[in-house]
Design a protein that fits this description.
This protein is about 35% helix and about 25% strand. It has four domains: about 15-130, Tetratricopeptide repeat domain (Serine Threonine Protein Phosphatase 5, Tetratricopeptide repeat), CATH 1.25.40.10; about 135-200, Immunoglobulin-like, CATH 2.60.40; about 210-270, Carboxypeptidase-like, regulatory domain (Immunoglobulin-like, Sandwich), CATH 2.60.40.1120; about 285-329, no CATH class. The protein has helices spanning about 1-30, 50-60, 65-80, 80-95, 100-110, 115, 125-130, 285-305, and strands at about 135-140, 145-150, 155, 160-170, 170-180, 180-190, 195-200, 210-215, 220-225, 225-230, 235-240, 240-250, 255-260, 265-270. The longest helix has 27 residues, at about 1-30. The strands form four sheets. It has a four-stranded antiparallel beta sheet, with no helix packed on it. It is built from eight helices and 14 strands. With about 325 residues, the protein is of the alpha+beta class.
């Protein structure tokens, strides 16, 4: 039987290697990638709070965070058990919805009795870790009803003045849009545990144009009609008509261009910049210097190697030669 055992053992080893590789790959996937279709609480099969809790636990083990959340939420509505707040917080964390996870964990910390909190290992460390993943964004919008979107998530419609949102920290793109205005867009780097304020400027489609200035030169400063508007890429509403755009940056020659804008138009202008060459980098500078040095060297050599008449001085003839180029006492 030995000849058959060896192939079987080799086959099982290959199967186990494939299984382990699959586990590693799945483990490295982002948590949110495991999210399933969001079930509504009303679509769940009927069950007691205890059954809902059990189904939620099973879904969590299977990494079906949305399903687990739906069961936990329904069980909590029926029982108001603080333990379910903790479970909901972990489900939100699995979905990378860190603001909601922090809300649930903070509520658990506030409402759970000491003996229940003592059962959670490193609770404070967990809450602080989630808190570091949450940033506050204060978006001031001049009009009501504008859609505020961060990344691919709609945060809601604006009200005039400051609008406060708790969001995931990290690089994000904010877009504020309204049918009567050009969209406002800004790339942000939101820092966990900190607040960032954004003043939204909306340009009317009927009365203004939107001008966006870019350049291959990162960090170039932009001025329009003599007024600085920041660094590239820079976007600003402008009145219709002709405007002068000027770019500047250390190490580059200034670049300028004119643009004509029409009301309701969005115009993108990309302006290249040339690397600034100092005078010492010009070929003609060093050519001229070379001619002067060569001419000076020849003249000095002639002067130093020319023997003087003994009667015209005190230095003996032929004492000073070309090797005495440098000055010395």
């Amino acid at each position: 039987m030995a000849p058959f055992v060896r192939p079987l053992t080799s086959f099982l080893a290959r199967v186990m290697a494939l299984v382990m590789a699959l586990v590693i790959v799945l483990t490295l996937l982002p948590r949110a990638a495991w999210a399933q279709t969001v079930p509504s609480d009303s679509s769940l099969p009927a069950g007691t709070p205890e059954e809902d809790k059990r189904h939620g636990d099973e879904a969590m083990i299977a990494l079906r965070y949305q399903e687990a959340l739906a069961y936990y939420r329904r069980a909590f509505e029926a029982t108001k058990s603080p333990a379910l707040l903790y479970n909901m917080g972990r489900a939100y964390e699995g979905l990378a919805e860190f603001p909601k996870a922090l809300d649930a964990l903070d509520e658990f910390t506030e409402k759970a009795p000491p003996e229940l909190k003592a059962r959670v290992p490193k609770l404070e460390e967990l809450v602080n870790d989630v808190r570091r993943r949450v940033a506050t964004m204060v978006v001031s919008v001049p009009v009501a009803g504008a859609e505020v979107r961060l990344g691919n998530k709609v945060l809601g419609n604006s009200k005039p003045g400051p609008n406060v949102y708790r969001v995931n920290a990290g690089p994000q793109t904010l877009v504020v849009s309204h049918r009567e205005y050009f969209p406002f867009e800004r790339t942000l780097t939101l820092v966990g545990g900190q607040s960032e304020s954004i003043e939204v400027v909306l340009a009317s489609r009927s009365a203004e144009a939107l001008l966006r200035v870019t350049s291959p030169v990162t960090g170039a400063s932009v001025a329009i009609d003599g007024k600085s508007i920041g660094n590239v890429p820079a976007e600003t509403p402008m009145k219709p008509g002709q405007h002068r755009i000027a770019l500047s940056r250390d190490g580059y020659d200034a670049a300028e261009t004119n643009v004509v804008l029409i009301a309701g138009e969005r115009k993108d202008v990309d302006i290249p910049m040339a690397v600034h060459d100092s005078i010492t980098k010009k070929w003609w500078f060093w050519t001229g210097i070379g001619v002067v040095l060569v001419a000076g060297g020849i003249a000095t050599y002639i002067a130093l190697t020319t023997e003087k008449d003994p009667s015209a001085g005190t230095i003996p003839p032929g004492t000073v030669k070309a090797e005495s180029w440098g000055f010395r006492f």
